[in-house]
Amino acid sequence: MFKSILVPVDGSNYAESQVKHAIEIAAIFKAKITLLYVIDIKIVEGPLLRDLTFLSETVTSFEYHNEVKNSLEEKGAAALEKAKKLCEEAKVTYDCKILPGIVSNTVAEQGKVCDLVVMGKRGENASFGGVFLGSVVEAASRMLNKPVLVVDEQFRPIKKILYAYDGSASANKGLQVLAEFTTERKLDVSVVTVAEDDSEGKGVLSEAVSYLNNYNITPTEILKVSADPVGEIISTAGEIGADMIMMGAFGHSTFQQMLLGSNTTLLIRAAKIPVFLYR
């Protein structure tokens, strides 16, 4: 199922959680982890650097450019070194990359040759982010056409999964991933469907249950009749003590996402546990 896992690290407090979650999944599927640090060219070549150069009469733009680039390379090497130690302690196969680029674009590009991308909910500026999702993870997860696991700052082993099923194509395809996870680890699985109509909700929920039954998985069935899917999924995850939420990603149109933000993004912002997005 997963043979290659991409972990973009930036030296933030989320990096350790990212790597530990990747190690947990790599151990299940005997996968290789690729640790990636992206040298942000917006910092190296952006307007801030030009402004600093303009204000200085003694230092050339070339010198500033090299100083900033070298500093970021050193920072990247340090971030990767911490991640490498975790992989070595866990005895999982890994490699490392330092690449220049726009961070979200580079992550999405590198994600094309991986089966799963594990990202931190927020990055280096998390303390300034409040309830908002990091711009890099939000942009990258929209561009990626592979599953994405968005993790919170604290790691805890995955023992209980809440699968949010709405009958969409991505949610339906993601059931196979859930089945593979559960078969390999014998996890405790609950499936929740949130619908505004009781009978409609039962029909949607039965689809997921029937699919999982084919894998000899008998999930706990949860139906919530509500117009607030995000709130119900979050509260249900807390009630059952879930360690991870799995769901299909970005069910709304691009236009709707621009105006309102998708339920997927809202849920990731609110969740206090990892969210696995299937696309």
Question: Can you walk through the features of this model?
Answer:
- With 279 residues, this protein is α/β, with parallel strands linked by helices.
- The chain has eleven helices and ten strands.
- The chain has a ten-stranded mixed sheet with strand order 3-2-1-4-5-10-9-6-7-8, with helices on both faces.
- Helix 7 crosses helix 8 (198-213) and helix 9 runs parallel beside helix 11 (263-270).
- The longest helix has 30 residues, at 61-90.
Structural class: alpha/beta
Oligomer, anyone?
A: single chain
Q: Number of DSSP strands?
A: 10
**For the report, how would you describe the main beta sheet?**
10 strands, mixed
Report the total helices.
Answer: 11
Give the % helix. Answer: 40-55%
Q: Name the beta content range.
A: 15-25%
Task: List the strand order in the largest sheet.
Answer: 3-2-1-4-5-10-9-6-7-8
- The radius of gyration over CA amounts to 20 Å
Mean pLDDT over the full residue set: 85
List the helices and strands in order: EHEHHHEHEHEEHEHEHEHHE
Overall, the morphology is elongated
Poorly predicted segments: 47-55, 125-133, 252-261
**First-last Cα distance:** 14 Å
Secondary-structure map with pairings?
Blueprint: E1 4-8, H1 15-29, E2 32-40, H2 41-44, H3 47-55, H4 61-90, E3 94-101, H5 103-111, E4 116-120, H6 135-143, E5 148-151, E6 160-164, H7 169-185, E7 188-195, H8 198-213, E8 220-225, H9 229-240, E9 244-248, H10 254-260, H11 263-270, E10 275-278
Parallel strand pairs: 1-2, 1-4, 2-3, 4-5, 6-7, 6-9, 7-8, 9-10
Antiparallel strand pairs: 5-10
Helix pairs in contact: 1-4, 5-6, 7-8, 9-11
